[in-house]
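[Q] Does anyone have a clean structure-token version of this?
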Amino acid sequence: TVCVFSEEIFNAFIHSEGYRDKLLTRWDLRLLLRQLPQFRALVSTVLEKLAHVGEPLALAAGQTLEPRDDIWYLLVEGTGSCDGQTCESGFELGCVPFAQAMLDAFCAATDCRLVGIARHQLQQFMTAVPQFSYLLRKYRIEQGRQDSDWLLGPVQLKEQDHA
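[A] Here you go.
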């Protein structure tokens, strides 16, 4: 079923139902995600789906974020420090997919914008959108990360591996 209506009616609908701010936030989040090196190769439809599960987070200069181990945080704008390192756009905290968790506190040096994605939503997203998992794994390879976990499940040793 297809329904065609004017832009004025659509705008009135999203305003009256309280969807306007939510739609603008999702649109902004999609544009923020596009800036991250982890997601530059994703097509728009995948970014749109990712914007559904991501939550924006703002930190003022001087504020500290204690990352949780069930959320993947990505620094989108601003700079800060974590574990003695300067952090810029693309820096990851919390449960980092295909890598070791980064749970050290992040201190914002400037006003920062981050995106947080809950682990359970991330796992569902990775299962539902194979392109995302593939491109994220490819990004990890290009980074040369030594802490990456490339396996999807438990290691099954063959008999010859025991010899």
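[Q] Thanks! Anything notable?
[A] The helical segments are 7-16, 20-35, 44-53, 119-128, 130-143.
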